[in-house]
């Protein structure tokens, strides 16, 4: 995408206190397209990505369209929503990415510090990245400032997805983005792969 547009996305991260460089931003037409590109980048046909349950059913369609499997991990409610670690431990061996939605639809819950640690530990053990959908990040249900822009804060390969259609409440605006975070070499390799997919 245009450097000026990517710089504007980086400024949007800065508004919430996170730092992202324009060269770590990849523009897409929608978050659905962003998922499509990431599944192409990270998975071979038949491999799995972990998706939260409950969550919206779009993942089933997006993964099937890319020839990969959506395997659920649980969110449990004990006064607040949190990741069910036992369901992470039971994940199949061919998981290539973990998806989180923050805030989640329909629970409205954000990824907490504890959840982020649990998901990051799993990703470290399995050598796979975290993909965080933050399209509703600007609509917290509670006054406390939630943890957002997780890719820009990550020390492991992480992708954050967001877009104008949700943040501006204008579904006809088809502009979304991926922010790539983590170690420099992994970021550069991921962005290069996404550029190849976009050009192809």
Which structural class best describes the helix and strand composition? alpha/beta
Oligomer: single chain
Helix content: 25-40%
SSE pattern? HEHEHEEHEHEEHEH
| Distance between the amino and carboxyl termini | 15 Å
Total DSSP E strands: 8
Spatial ordering of strands, largest sheet: 1-8-7-6-5-2-3-4
User: What best-fitting shape do the alpha-carbon axes yield?
Assistant: globular
Radius of gyration (CA) equals: 16 Å
Q: What share of the residues does DSSP label as strand, in percent?
A: 15-25%
Mean pLDDT: 93
Q: What are the segments in which pLDDT stays under 50 over at least 5 consecutive residues?
A: none
Q: Note the main sheet.
A: 8 strands, mixed
Concise structural overview:
The chain has seven helices and eight strands. With 200 residues, it is α/β, with parallel strands linked by helices.
